[in-house]
Design a protein that fits this description.
By secondary structure, this protein is mostly helical. Helix content is about 70%, strand content about 0%. α4 runs antiparallel to α5, α5 packs antiparallel against α6 and α5 packs parallel to α7. The longest helix has 15 residues.
Length: about 220
């Protein structure tokens, strides 16, 4: 499971944190948070679990600490506790995109796509320009056989820089018998990923199915 960027880092994606998500801590809790993040960077997950556990015990409203705790629990393969921590983070800050996205990603990885729709939908509402949130929501809808709902989110994900969204759209269109549309999506994908390993296979599909230009 590839998780979204950490809460402490400058946002390099629209789905990380905004100024509204900055959490003010006491000096002691700030020190604990920094210690936990150092432990995570050094892959000392037992230390991070201990420190973050103490931090949320001291301040149960610290939604960023709950999110970090969920991620460390996930890295420690404790999926149930990770889900609880992400949900607690969302309880404290319902529109915190990072927790919403990571919860949706976790549920999707467990193939609980129905359950993943709600947090991912909230993630998109909170951060409409998040390519990951749009892609994961579109994928969740695809997996529960709601292709018509998946299309706009996958289109947005592709527009926002997620090339693989074109592949998922092509799969959807191909299954629906709309091979000309699938060919267009494959073509768009190859423009963005020219070194794709199965390029020749996609080019063959495009050649066989792309609609001829109108005179």
């Amino acid at each position: 499971i590839v998780l979204e960027a950490r809460t402490s880092r400058p946002p390099n994606k629209a789905a990380t944190i905004s100024a509204a998500d900055v959490y003010e801590r006491t000096p002691a809790n700030k020190s604990l948070f920094q210690k936990a993040q150092k432990a995570i960077d050094e892959k000392k997950y037992d230390v991070a679990l201990d420190v973050l556990g103490r931090l949320v015990a001291a301040d149960a409203k610290d939604f960023q600490a709950w999110t970090e705790l969920g991620t460390v629990q996930l890295m420690s393969n404790n999926l149930q506790e990770a889900e609880k921590s992400y949900r607690r983070a969302i309880q404290e800050r319902p529109n915190f995109t990072l927790a919403l996205l990571n919860l949706g990603r976790l549920l999707s990885a467990e193939k609980k796509f129905d359950a993943a729709v709600e947090p991912l939908d909230e993630a998109v509402k909170s951060s409409p320009t998040s390519a990951d949130a749009n892609f994961l929501l579109g994928e969740a809808y695809l997996q529960i056989k709601k292709g018509s709902k998946a299309v706009p989110y996958l289109n947005d994900a592709a527009r926002l820089g997620k090339p693989e969204a074109h592949l998922r759209l092509a799969t959807l269109y191909n299954a629906a018998g709309m091979k000309d549309k699938a060919a267009i999506e494959y073509e768009e994908f190859l423009k963005k990923k020219p070194d794709y390993s199965d390029r020749k296979k996609l080019e063959q599909y495009i050649m066989e199915n792309k609609a001829a230009p109108k005179p």
